[in-house]
Amino acid sequence: MTGARWRSGARDAALLTPALAVLALLFGGAIVGVTRVSLIPLGQNASLDAWRDLFGDPLFGDAVVFTLRTALISTTLAALVALGLALAAQRRGTLVRSLLALPVPVPHLLVATVAVVWLAPGGLADRILGGLPVTLVRDSGGLGIVLVYVYKEAPFLLLLVLAALGRGHQESDEAAAALGVTPLQRLRWVTWPTVRSPLVVGSIVVFAFALGAFEVPLAVGPSYPPTIAEYARQATQGDLISGQSTAAATLLLSAAGSIALAALAVRAARDPQGG
Amino acid sequence: MAERLSRPAAGVLAALVAVPLLALVVRAFADEWRAPALVPQQFGLRGVEVAFSGSSGEAFGNSLVVALAAAALALLLAWPAARVLGERRLRHPAPVFLLLAMPLLVPSYAVGTGLTEWFIRLDLDGTLPALVAGHLTFVLPYVILVLLSGFGPRLTALEEVAQVNGLSPLRRMLWVTLPAAAPTVGAAALIGFLVSWSDYGTSLAVGGGRPMLPVVLLPFVGADPQVAATLALLFLAPAVAVLALAVRAGRMPL
Amino acid sequence: MNGYELDCRDLSVSPGGSPVLRELSLTISAGSRTALVGPSGAGKTTLLRAISGLAPIETGAILLGGEPIHHRAVHRRAIAVVFQEPRLLPHLDVQDNVALALRAAGVGRSERRRLAGAQLEEVGLGGRAKQRVQGLSGGEQQRVALARALCADPRLLLLDEPLAALDPNRRAALRRVIVELQQRRRLTTVIVTHDHSEAAELGQQIALMLEGRIVQHDEPRALFERPVSAAVARFFGVANLIPEGSDTLAIRPEHVRLSRDGGLRGTVVEAVYAGDHVRVAIDSDGRRLHAHVAPPDAPRAGEQVGVILPDEHLWRLPSGPSGEAAEVADG
After folding, report:
1. Which chain C residue's Cα is nearest to A3?
2. For residues C121-125, average pLDDT
3. Residues B3 and B70 in one domain
4. Does the structure show a pLDDT above 60 at A14?
5. Residues 6+ apart with CB under 8 A from B121
6. Looking at the complex, does the CB of residue C17 fall below 8 Å from at least one CB of chain A?
7. pLDDT tens-digit profile of C188-239?
8. Is the ipTM of this complex over 0.90?
9. Do B179 and C74 touch (CB under 8 A)?
10. Domain chopping of chain A, boundaries
11. Nearest by CB to C75, which of B158, B163, B175?
12. Does domain A56-270 correspond to CATH entry 1.10.3720.10?
């Protein structure tokens, strides 16, 4: 009898509607708004000028390369650190785990501030060590940005990985070891399949954030090249009319890029051959 | 057990956490601290004065109100949705999760810029409700995702017990469902608050000049480290409160 | 305390789309203790959920004490359920868990704590009233769940495999508690179990459920020694089903006697030591027969023996739709 099932399906839809409707309205509205501004500059007719200017601007190209590079390096390092810490910490008690998870509720900008106090030229580390060998803050490579992101995101990924390892992983690992499987093999055949999915999903979120955020690079990054988001913001400070459109176009591209990259990564993660 | 072995490790980690924080506190109250001295030449309250002479107090208040409102609103909207999703009642959940994921992937500055378009038209640009709406775009997905882990066969089993013990639906909600789901609701509220509190991009785009704490803090980093450190401590306050609450409730997820 | 009769008429229930209960009818007399048995998947839990209201019914009716209850909400049926897992509320202590139904009924705090305390005494947990539930063992938690159900003063008590999660010693103890409490209150009780010997001990009557229907409902002896069909016979361990003409004769392995000479000749195919008896399988005239023999008298594999089937223990299966007369059970 489908009557009862149809009714409960309708009830579920009603329960979901408030949240989903609000979300669709806000997010959809944002995307539509950004698209609109990029195509219709203030008080003018629709045109693709903003987009053409964007692709023609070498600064934009530099920004994209720079942002992609820092995001990729940060995410990869954070994932590796998280994996390593998880394996080291899985036997430890709650105290160690809690301490490792400490940076998670701390805002990014705060970490950046602390990084500047400590790691900038003239900062505390510089004074204690009598000179830093490498410029860590405001360096042209964006090393400061990477450090801050890794410090913030590795604990977040660590939580995800530890949750996935749970209680069962240690037992499976020991069973495999007793069968003569080497540590490296165990890493590939026992550990990786367990953590792969949450680590990949978490890394996607981290990568997307690094791609679009700009407070950390503004605080500890070089002034040139800007990140994609900073490029958009600078555009709004320029020409009052076309600037908005350029900014909007940049942001729309950035948003689409994040989603596309995420979709690709999910597809790659599902592929049994991939990693 | 393993706890004893990890004391030195815990000690090192605790130091790694406490020392930078200590430096921040010292920096905030150091009127003069020229290199290469390891101790400030002069302590003082200049940082506090400058920080609060501007709009920082207002910024703190704005950020707090927006974060609390966004988290509360998100919880209300998320509760029914999280029930359905957590109990796996959907035949095809993928599109729903896609809708939840997209605001988290897209830069918050993009979301803010897009929404500002409409807020300007509605004459809401720069108002607190507009900021709450803007923040809600990504706070709501986070809250739903965390909240749904609290629902499922375990909670349903307890609710069935309540039913067969003669509890009416209202009593079930008050005496069984809410207390049993409380830890997860708490975690979801905390995360919703923190995500909004820390946000820069949407606050910048939608704020339209209304001061929000991260936006006020950023220019001082690098320009005036003392004021930056002062504001950073202010910025840190809720995070510390959150941690204290979580540790006390034994809620650290591991 | 007067008991209430449970009458299920033509119940059809299809949780999740596929039919599980097919026009099932079952009457449990007031104040009696019935064990509901059947293989996994037969629908026992579904029946309990339907009676308590946790699963909606499609057709049929449920009457308790003559009153129809199948339209009532779960919390208005005056039926208490003890589930397979204790399902204690983690944020309440033991006595507040036990007193839950009283609180719902509006009983004052001191009164309901007094009643809860008394109930805990009855299940052997007096003095544990203020403990947190997390510290209790599995068996203790089930007793608290039982106390909670009784405290609700229900008209019908349903227990869904309450002993399944316990080890054998605890199981025996809890069985005794259940039987004693039920006898003292004369509360109409249905206990689901998949273990047929436990059913014999727990139930004044046994109802066997196969594929969504009640197949036989009688005193335990009847199901063990006078099954109505080959399927029932098999479930209760009547391993010998011998076709005779158009009928089938059934006899339990415990009642089969082996001798040196006389009886049906056969060869011992297998003799497995099972602690308190030896399971012997004999090939006789192309037919497989089973006997449970005391270890000292047991033959060994390969020996020639004579099989005697005493008349007083032979049972003729009723032929007809449930008779399945031509089926022979094989080991």
Report:
1. C58
2. 92
3. no
4. yes
5. none
6. yes
7. 999 999 888 899 999 999 999 998 899 999 999 999 999 999 999 999 999 9
8. no
9. no
10. 1-39, 56-270
11. B163
12. yes
